[in-house]
Request: fold
Amino acid sequence: MNAVKAAMAAGRTLVLLNFDDIYESLYDVLNRRFVTRVDPKTGRAQSCLRLAIGARSHLCPVAPSFKVVVIAEEEHALANLDLPLLNRFEKMTFGVEDVLSPRGLALARALREWCELVASQSGLGSVEAAFCAAHVGLVPSLVHANDAADLGECKRLLAALLTPEAVVTSPAAKEVVSLE
Reply:
């Protein structure tokens, strides 16, 4: 909480990642519910926000440039965080594809097409049925982790996840597996 107070007073941007336990303490901060105090000696106004810690709360000074960024995985946020808390934020969704270069995006697109071809040829109906542990982020994550890899090398890495049925029934899969 001291780091939160210091960031508020200094006007820095506070980035919170996996701080589920303190979000309730920050409701007035997140609502930007300012209290203005006037110093009787100087006559200067100071904006403050209330930080609640258990049953106690403290008014803490806040600089106008103070910002809060909360980072949470979408599934975790929807399952574990209160909806009123989520409604306080401008929401942005980022996936692995958002950090890929144009070359990486083209490689991911080609790999996705190959995965769909394998699934179609094998008669399994979906990429998830043809590749073990397949999910929406598999291909872009593979490309991101193997930035210098070419299409053939990425196909060989994906081939390690093929189900036996996909290897036997898909010509596109057989071609890659036979090269190993």
Strands lie at 13-17, 35-38, 45-53, 56-61, 67-71. The chain has two domains: 2-86, 96-179. The two ends are 55 Å apart (CA to CA).
